[in-house]
Amino acid sequence: MRPAPVISLTSFDKALEIIAVAGIAFSWIFLLMVMPSLPEKIPTHFDLQGKPDGFQVKYNELFLPLFSTIIWVALTILNRFPQIFNYPVQVTKENAASLYRKGTFFIRLIKCLVALVFAIIIYATYWYSKHSNSPISQGLLPVLLVVINIPILLMVIPAFRNKKV
């Protein structure tokens, strides 16, 4: 039985929450505003050179902000129960607060990144549909990969260093 969590949000935690909600709001508002001007078929997948290699009807783009919203809600609910997270060390009364803070911060960071990545994908798809010059081909794909993986590495590497095998 793990200790009950008592975690207060820091200013940085609150900023991450605001950024995540803003990313989701941007996704919905922007997409609903540009939807009428999009062609019936839009690119939905890009190869490593940034060229579209998959197309679908424009209304399928609505799934992106929907998935972003669902992920945000699910992770927000999950984050209320840090005592059920899987930690790399034994949770004790002495380390529970620190582990819970790190665990909830990681989930909050993931929520923020998901919202931003989906917003960027929506904007990139719109841009390519209108200009046939994808920002993905101009270096956006490597940036997205770094943005997604650095926070994960920042959390996983220290966890394995502290774990006694």
Question: Topology, please?
Answer:
Blueprint: H1 11-34, E1 41-46, E2 52-57, H2 63-78, H3 96-131, H4 140-162
Antiparallel strand pairs: 1-2
Helix pairs in contact: 1-2, 1-3, 2-3, 3-4
Textual characterization of the structure:
This protein is mainly alpha-helical and 165 residues long. Helix content is 60%, strand content 7%. The protein has 4 helices and 2 strands, in the order αββααα. The protein has helices at 11-34, 63-78, 96-131, 140-162; strands at residues 41-46, 52-57. It has a two-stranded antiparallel sheet. α1 (11-34) packs antiparallel against α2 (63-78). The radius of gyration is 19 Å and the shape is elongated. The protein starts with 10 loop residues before the first helix and ends with a helix.
Keywords:
7% strand; 165 residues; elongated; single chain; 2 strands; mainly alpha; 60% helix
Give me a quick take on this structure.
The chain has 165 residues and is mainly alpha-helical. The protein has 4 helices and 2 strands.
pLDDT averaged residue by residue: 85
Number of helices: 4
Structural class: mainly alpha
Helix content: 55-70%
Sequence stretches where pLDDT stays below 50 over 5 or more residues: none
Computed CA radius of gyration, to the nearest angstrom: 19 Å
* Largest sheet data: 2 strands, antiparallel
Q: Distance between the terminal alpha carbons, to the nearest Å?
A: 23 Å
